[in-house]
Amino acid sequence: MADKVYFGHPINTYHTDLETMLITAIKGQFKDFDIVNPAARHHRRAYAARRKETGNGMNYFIDEVLPFCDIGVFLPFQNNLFGAGVYMEAAILHQQGKPIYEVMYNGFVLPLPFPCVERSMTVPETKMQLALEKYTKRRRKR
After folding, report:
1. d(C-alpha 16, C-alpha 12), whole Å
2. What is the pLDDT of residue 135?
3. Most buried residue, 44, 50, 125, 138, by most Cβ within 10 Å?
4. What residue spans of 55-135 are helical by DSSP H?
5. For the chain, what are the domain ranges?
6. DSSP characters for 11-52?
7. How far apart are CA 67 and CA 47, in angstroms?
8. Is residue 8 a contact partner of residue 73, using CB atoms and an 8 Å limit?
9. Residues sharing a CB contact under 8 Å with residue 118, sequence separation 6 or more, in sequence order
10. Which fold has domain 3-132?
11. What burial class does residue 106 get, using C-beta atoms within 10 Å of its C-beta: 0-12 exposed, 13-18 middle, 19+ buried?
12. What are the pLDDT tens digits along the chain (142 aa)?
């Protein structure tokens, strides 16, 4: 079984041309790895089920996904800050001793110095940023 790269990115970039381009860039950097995309249908469904069951869908990723990933690649918002959920995912992988990277909007993948608390946002700040950053070219959901 191939090693896995977790691609943490803001939900407003799910199913967009940007997401497709960045996944291609990540695959180019980590050729022998499978990409774990939280936007995939089975992850969205499991997140929704866990949220309904416990009130917190992120626990699905914490318990069922991140422990089985070998590397994390994370996309900040356009303001260069990481949303609360994305930062938390990076922190968990870092705590597990796994390498973490940042993918830039041009597709470059660079090591992410961690912790970088000054680049993390609170949940309310994340919600505000999601409202500010709209991606109009959305691909059809799969």
Report:
1. 8
2. 59
3. 50
4. 58-60, 84-95, 123-132
5. 3-132
6. GGGTTBHHHHHHHHHHHHHSTTEEEE-TTSHHHHHHHHHHHH
7. 16
8. yes
9. none
10. Rossmann fold (3.40.50)
11. exposed
12. 679 999 999 999 999 999 999 999 999 999 999 999 999 999 999 999 999 999 999 999 999 999 999 999 999 999 999 999 999 999 999 999 999 999 999 999 999 998 999 999 999 999 999 988 875 455 555 5
Residue 38 is encoded by which pair of tokens? Answer: 């939280």
The pLDDT assigned to 138 comes to 53
CB 77 within 8 A of CB 103: no
73 closest CA partner among 40, 104, 39, 116: 104
Distance separating alpha carbons of residues 81 and 131, to the nearest angstrom: 15
Rounded CA-CA distance 130/10 in Å is 8
Residue-level pLDDT at 12: 92
Cα separation, 115 vs 104, whole angstroms: 18
Find tokens 């990076």 and name the residue.
90
HSE-up (13 A, CA, CB side) for residue 20: 10
The pLDDT of residue 7: 98
